[in-house]
Amino acid sequence: MINWAARYFPMLRVLKQHGFMKRGTLLEIGSGHRGIGSYRKVPFTGCDVDFPFKARWPMTPLIASGAELPVEDKSFDVVIASDVLEHVPPDFREKVIQEALRVARSLVIFGFPCGTSAHDADKEFKRFCLMRNIAVPQWLEEHMQAAFPEPSLFQNIPGWNVVQFSNENLEFHSWLVRRERNWWFARIGGRLARYMPWLLEPILRRVDHEPTYRQIFVLTPLNLESKVAT
């Protein structure tokens, strides 16, 4: 779906800037059965608490909590988490961030809906679904359980440089999630994202302006030069 592309394409740009688009070991926390493998056709490890659907190539599934990763320190070149942190209970969010930093060697990327305005937009989307007798998606129900993460989670992290940038205009996001309730729109959008990303990516990049639904945080060890360009 286009909504997936909107949150993964900025991460793909960061991976390309750091030389990890086609190489390097990568762990995705909260990957589901597809994850970044829909767009980056390089073997990677996808971590989730459960895999109700069979993991798709090129993913190797790992059943685990992001707060307790069963791997050694610095096991992966890159660790990413796309729209995961808002599903984590607030008391465990810092632990998930620390675990990602523990197992990463070179690069960590977190992207998530951020702040009160984004949460209010999802409340409106739930009301939209209920008023039209549309099934409320599970991810949306989970979004309602706690306030969204704030940028303060990434302040003053010792030993790491942090770069923050905005992703997906709030009004565009609200329009898109409603349109993707239509089966035909979702199907066509999914094919466009998968087979013609070169066409879709610059369009989505133009809607990465304030106010935005999502914030992306890119962390690199202080002993490595940051190459992030938004």
Molecular structure report:
The chain is of the alpha/beta class and 230 residues long. It has one domain: 3-Layer(aba) Sandwich (Rossmann fold). It is globular.
Through-space gap between termini: 23 Å
Structural class label: alpha/beta
- Per CATH, the architecture is 3-Layer(aba) Sandwich
Helix content, binned percent: 25-40%
- Helix-strand sequence: HEEEEHEHHEHHHE
The count of DSSP E runs of length 2 or more, i.e. the number of strands, is 7
Give the CA-based shape: globular
Q: Report the mean per-residue pLDDT as an integer.
A: 94
Concise synopsis of the structure shown:
The protein has 230 residues and is an alpha/beta fold. It is built from seven helices and seven strands.
Provide tags for this entry.
230 residues; alpha/beta; Rossmann fold; globular
SSE layout and pairing:
Elements: H1 2-17, E1 26-29, E2 44-48, E3 59-63, E4 76-82, H2 90-103, E5 104-113, H3 115-131, H4 138-143, E6 160-169, H5 170-179, H6 183-195, H7 197-205, E7 212-221
